[in-house]
Write a structure and sequence with these properties.
This protein is of the alpha+beta class. The protein is 31% helix and 28% strand. The longest helix has 12 residues.
């Protein structure tokens, strides 16, 4: 797997449960090697395989984790 990294802003989180929800949504995507969300900095760092996943798909999962 050719690993790339993307860091996205994640606003509106208020607790650890929000962090887990976003991480879970992103980790379900094919090609995601790891996903970490930082509540304090409001950022998500995702390592993924660009052959399997586009940054737009990751953004969509971050923006709407309840539906991902």
């Amino acid at each position: 797997m050719s690993d790339q990294q993307i860091t996205l802003p994640v606003t509106g989180m208020t607790c650890a449960s929000c962090v887990r929800r976003v991480e879970k949504a992103v980790q379900k995507l094919p090609g995601v090697a790891s996903a970490g969300v930082n509540l304090a900095t409001e950022q998500a760092e995702i390592h993924y395989d660009p052959a399997l996943l586009k940054p737009e798909q990751i953004r969509s999962a971050v923006e709407a984790p309840a539906t991902a």
